[in-house]
Amino acid sequence: MKQFRKMTYPYVVWISVMIVMPMLLIVFYAFTKQGNSVTQFSFTLENFKRFITDKVFLEVLGRSLRVALTTTVLCVLLGYPAAYYIARCSEGLKMRWVLIITFPTWINMLVRTYAWIGILQDDGVINHFLGFFGIGPATMLYTEFAVVLGMVYNFIPFMILQIYTSLTKMDHSLIEAAQDLGADSFKCFTKITLPLSIPGVISGITLVFLPAVSSFCIPKMLGGGQYVLVGNLIESQFLTSGDWNFGSAISLIMAIIIMISMYITKKVDTTEVAERSAT
Questions:
Q1: Distance between CA atoms of residues 274 and 181, nearest Å
Q2: CATH at 255
Q3: What distance in Å separates the CA atoms of residue 186 and residue 170, rounded to the nearest whole number?
Q4: Are 155 and 208 in contact (CB under 8 A)?
Q5: pLDDT classification of 42: cutoffs 50, 70, 90
Q6: Structural domain contains residue 18
Q7: From CA 245, how far away is CA 14, in angstroms rounded?
Q8: Which of 60, 98, 68, 1 is nearest to 211 (CA)?
Q9: Mean pLDDT of the chain
């Protein structure tokens, strides 16, 4: 047992240096303001008050939540049918489809997102295609549509894989029993398949919503720097304005929102498990 504890020391040190210390610094900067000297700090809630009372910052927060929710809903609507189809394929096809879905994630996100600039721009691939039908050019780049599209493209593999994993672990004998009792395909799906796949859907929602609400790379590239989300606001406070105190306060607010969303999804997942156990 002692030897096992000694083996965990490097991981404890790594977590302390790379995770705990930066979080403590963010909390420290969020609740302080710098005085006349570099070493002088005073406790204050002004950073949080500034964010809450400024309509511009609240609009950015609302926009970020709206885009993240839209991205999550689209990923569920598009990812569930794809995961359901893959789960019903033969074993050989399953592996091929999983490889196709995960292959884009092997490429750096910056490269994948940058490729969409060439696709969505006024003289890009889509507008060239629309030109054959006498349509366009349509302005798609540097809009909310482009930002949401980029997020869905980058995050939908996480949704598909989570739902697919949940569907493959399902006991298919339950569907066979329901069919023997006279249930049609629609009832089998709504009464058995869908409820049993809810844990995968909730895990997918968590993996999509959390990075989407704090993303700054995709909005900056596909939004052209004009479509600002909370992630871009935090980046500008640290790198451009140099206001680490205000940037830390925004980061802490986002951390609280993310923890609340994780608690809600976990609560829903626990409730679903309890209801299935009761039935």
A1: 25
A2: 1.10.3720.10
A3: 17
A4: yes
A5: confident
A6: no
A7: 25
A8: 68
A9: 85
Q: Domain range holding 269? A: 55-278
The stretch 136-163 carries a mean pLDDT of: 90
pLDDT at 84: 93
Measured between alpha carbons, how far is 79 from 158 in angstroms, rounded to an integer?
A: 9
- Mean pLDDT of the region 129-144: 82
Token pair of 216 as six digits: 């700054």
User: Which among 172, 127, 164, 166 has a CA at the least distance from the CA of 146?
Assistant: 127
Residue 6 belongs to some domain of the structure: no
Beta strand residue intervals within 36-171, DSSP E: 41-43
- Residue from 86, 93, 222, 199 nearest 152 by CA: 222
Rg (CA), the chain: 23
Q: Write down the residue that tokens 């089998």 correspond to.
A: 188
* Among candidate residues 106, 119, 123, 109, the one with its CA nearest the CA of residue 145: 119
**pLDDT over threshold 90, residue 76:** yes
Closest CA to 201 of 114, 91, 81, 113: 81
Residue 74 forms part of a structural domain? yes
- How many percent of the chain have pLDDT more than 90? 27
- Stretch 167-184: mean pLDDT, rounded? 82
Q: Which of 170, 183, 177 is nearest to 84 (CA)?
A: 170
Rounded Cα gap, residues 221 and 239, in angstroms: 17
Residue reference for tokens 């750096």: 108
